[in-house]
Amino acid sequence: MSVYQNFKIVPIYLHFHADNPDAPTKVDDETDNWPVPDQFQEQLSQIKRTHCVQPLRAYMDNRFIEPNDVNGTLANALVEIHFTIKHYNIRREGEKPFDSFTADIEQLTVLERGAPKQLTPYKRRNPRSGPLEVKRVKVSMIPTQPFTSAPKGICSTSTP
């Protein structure tokens, strides 16, 4: 399961083990210290004893990317993703059958870090404070030097 918040992924992959008689009664360190935003701490606390986190297998330069660094590292990056897709054809008596697909990310490898987005001067906090003075490069369509490579008969600068 991933929690999407403000277009950022909060990777929280959980394995359910409540039906397992050998399930641990103590919360493992990874699950107990899993970084989640404050607004989700209570929900995580409620499921810590029945679930354990499984970190996203994300790597860059053959090194594991820690959960707190995943969003920053993956932003605008070129990545190789290994995933599985499962297809289910669901049929119910008296209803039209339909297809359902699920996908799981198995591993991510960052091939190329993303370039930061260019800031634009037009994105300001308060547009009521007045217009921006943007310096523009003046472009002239008038050549600064006469053309010398024109074929004969097309353009002539001499007078008869």
Q: What does the secondary structure layout of this molecule look like, with pairings?
A:
Blueprint: E1 2-5, E2 8-11, E3 14-16, H1 29-32, H2 41-47, E4 51-53, E5 58-60, E6 63-64, H3 70-74, E7 78-90, E8 98-112
Parallel strand pairs: 5-8
Antiparallel strand pairs: 1-2, 3-4, 5-6, 7-8
Would you give an account of this structure?
The structure is a single chain. This protein has two domains: 1-55, no CATH class; 56-115, no CATH class. Helix content is 10%, strand content 29%. It is built from three helices and eight strands; from the N terminus they run βββααβββαββ. The strands form three sheets. Strands 6-5-8-7 form a four-stranded mixed β-sheet.
> Any idea what the radius of gyration is?
29 Å
Q: Into which percent range does the helicity of residues fall?
A: 10-25%
Number of strands: 8
The mean pLDDT is 76
Largest sheet: 4 strands, mixed
Count of spatially separate domains: 2
Strand content: 25-35%
Structural class, judged by helices and strands? mainly beta
Provide the succession of SSEs: EEEHHEEEHEE
Roughly how many Å apart are the termini? 83 Å
Q: What shape does the CA trace take? A: extended
Strand order of the largest sheet: 6-5-8-7
Unreliable spans: 1-10
Count of helical segments?
3
